[in-house]
Amino acid sequence: VAFEAYITPRPSEKTVPTEKTDRGQASALMNDASEQMKAGNSNEANILLDKAAAADRSWSIPVFAKAQIFAAAGKEKEAAETLEGAYKSFPKEPEAGLLLLRNMMATKSPVEYEQIARHVLTLQSDAGEPHFYLAQALIAQQNPSKYAEAQKELEFASKKSPKQPNVEIEIGHLAEISGDHAGAVKHLLKAADLVSANHATGNLMRMTNDRRNIAFWLSNAYTALKDNKNQQLWSLRVAKLDKRLQKANELRAKATANPPDQAAIAELNTLMADTTFADY
Q1: Smallest Cα–Cα separation from 58: which of 5, 13, 8?
Q2: Strand, coil or helix: what is 240?
Q3: pLDDT of residue 10
Q4: Cβ atoms within 10 A of the Cβ of 19, count?
Q5: pTM to 2 decimals?
Q6: Predicted local confidence at residue 182, as pLDDT
Q7: How is 172-196 classified by DSSP, letter by letter?
Q8: d(CA 184, CA 171)
Q9: Do 184 and 175 form a contact (C-beta atoms < 8 A)?
Q10: Is 271 in contact with 244 (CB distance < 8 Å)?
Q11: Res 6: pLDDT
């Protein structure tokens, strides 16, 4: 989610009365933080966000925005600490749990991830996203007795977001580990088409991660189907995408350093504009 998504409060926001709720001052500070981010001054933006959070402690948006800045800069520890704090401070806001689910799966055990997803579902049961994360958590536990529930959760998420590649990837992943290799190929190829359809508007880094996952599971499925030609093709694509992602991550670390490495920024922009980075 882009930083700008947290500038304007949504109608669904819940405000918990506290001793300090100067929303006007907090909003002004948020706007200033947004201008600093546009100018590339993330440190100044973080200071302003801290002030905005202090001005209105019932408003979660400055905290969410700060977590997103840390995540975008590759500061995983700071992002995790901020998101954990937001989740504890705003337990009745689904966005707090969703941000944790979107960004912190690698730092949580599958059981913890499941607990957070189930909590979010008590607040937002009609949205597809928490159902998707619950399915991911159930699959990650590698317990076949949980796969039926995971399948139902994915079907619900797919109905809500039929053009979401991640859902289709997870359906293919589940089919593959359940032994339905032909079904896995069907869903994973559909996911590849969905990613390509979103090429013009999507985040290339995320899309390339998606393609890497698609290629990995397709390689596994074709191996099980004894289709050597396609297995080799998709294995080569995994290697190619791994190499590109490693390079992009190295450049991003330099580009988001303080001060930013301008040469790395230019090289990263060139890499991200390269269609071979996004396409097979």
Answers
A1: 13
A2: helix
A3: 43
A4: 6
A5: 0.81
A6: 98
A7: HHHHHHTT-HHHHHHHHHHHHHHHH
A8: 7
A9: yes
A10: yes
A11: 40
d(C-alpha 177, C-alpha 228), whole Å:
19
Residue with tokens 């926001």: 13
The pLDDT, as a whole number, for residue 199 is 65
Sign, CA dihedral 96-98-99-103, equals positive
Nearest CA to 234 out of 249, 217, 247, 251 is that of 217
Is 103 within 8 Å of 67 (Cβ atoms)? yes
Distance CA 185, CA 169 (A): 10
* Tokens found for residue 221: 């499925």
Q: Which two tokens stand for residue 82?
A: 């901020």
* Confidence at residue 278, expressed as pLDDT on a 0 to 100 scale: 59
Q: Which ranges constitute the DSSP H helices of the chain? A: 23-38, 42-55, 61-72, 76-89, 94-103, 110-123, 128-140, 147-160, 165-177, 181-197, 204-224, 228-255, 262-273, 275-278
Distances (CA, A) of 41 to 31, 44, 69: 14, 6, 11
φ, ψ of residue 21 in degrees (nearest 5): -140, 65
Q: Are 63 and 55 in contact (CB under 8 A)?
A: no
Q: How far is CA 15 from CA 12, 18, 61, 196, in A?
A: 10, 9, 11, 40
**Residue numbers of the chain with a pLDDT score lower than 70:** 1-20, 199-202, 275-280
CB atoms within 10 A of CB 200: 6
Please report how many Cα atoms fall inside a 13 Å half-sphere around the Cα of residue 16, on the Cβ side: 8
Query: How many angstroms separate the CA atoms of 271 and 94, rounded?
Result: 35
